[in-house]
Amino acid sequence: MAMVETMTPEQTRTPETARPDATRSEGTAGSPLVGPGEDAKVSARDCSVYYGEKHALKGVSLDIKVNEVTAFIGPSGCGKSTFLRSLNRMNDIIDGARVTGLIALDGEDIYARKVDVVQLRARVGMVFQKPNPFPKSIYENVAYGPRIHGLASTKDEMDDVVQSSLERAGLWTEVKDRLDQPGTGLSGGQQQRLCIARAIAVSPEVILMDEPCSALDPIATAKIEELIDELRQNYTIVIVTHSMQQAARVSQRTAFFHLGNLVECNDTEQIFTNPLHKLTQGYITGRFG
Ligand SMILES: Nc1ncnc2c1ncn2[C@@H]1O[C@H](COP(=O)(O)OP(=O)(O)OP(=O)(O)O)[C@@H](O)[C@H]1O
Ligand SMILES: [Mg+2]
User: Fold this and answer.
1) Domain boundaries in the chain?
2) Residue 135 in 3-state DSSP?
3) 10 Å Cβ neighbour count for 125?
4) For ligand 1, is residue 82 a contact (CB within 6 Å)?
5) DSSP code at position 223
6) Which residue ranges does the record annotate as region Disordered (predicted)?
7) Which end of the chain has the lower number of beta carbons within 10 A, N or C?
8) H/E element holding 119?
9) Whose CA is nearest to atom 29 of ligand 1?
10) The whole model's pTM is what?
């Protein structure tokens, strides 16, 4: 089902841009919007982001499919992080940042006035480039979110949430005997898996990852990539990466950005074997960027 059809006018800040016919992403090669019968978890329509006068993201229309990994690729400064942050309103906390157009989660405008941003960020979690555990114990890093969202009412329940989140993040066996030690004392790769455990502890629906492996060695990277593949059974994942190999390994769809524009979005295999746009071809073959 195309999500735009389920949006009511009051959920749509810019109704003129939310009509499917008005948004067939002119100028974008490939298939940025899902077809009939397919599920879009997140939909962007004519989304622009400005930092003061700077127009950093330019009228992007893109659907992100449920239970898939979508990779965002493109040269430095092309707007990948900017777009990613607009998907859970992280740009709200950047002074001077302004988002226009429509971003919908399950067909509902996430920028609507009634939306509780704390709840939204529990539904759309984020993992950053640099592992950033809280200066707390391993246990408390994971328990923090469930506690503020009231997801566990007893100590036993909380223990279960912490254990299952660490298990799903592939970290449990490495840390089960030292849950009370500081999260910051783990290795970089373990810290990143702790951050993933922290993100999944609140049962998000979408996980946004901004270059989650860029600070990791190849072994830790391989672990995170395996994990991403497992997580996609239950979550919708968006990953920003500078590694073509990583995008090819972990994602089913890939979106290529250039100078704030979405140039091409397609099945990952198509993007890497037979891109439709010259700019995509140039980037994936390493001729620029
Ligand atoms: N907080 C900010 N204030 C002003 N300009 C910004 C801010 N954040 C990003 N920009 C600008 O917006 C554009 C897009 O930046 P963004 O960080 O989204 O790029 P990116 O594709 O994630 O790059 P990279 O691959 O280097 O992480 C750039 O020109 C950048 O300088
Ligand atoms: Mg970035």
Assistant:
1) 3-284
2) coil
3) 23
4) yes
5) H
6) 1-40
7) N
8) helix 117-123
9) 77
10) 0.89
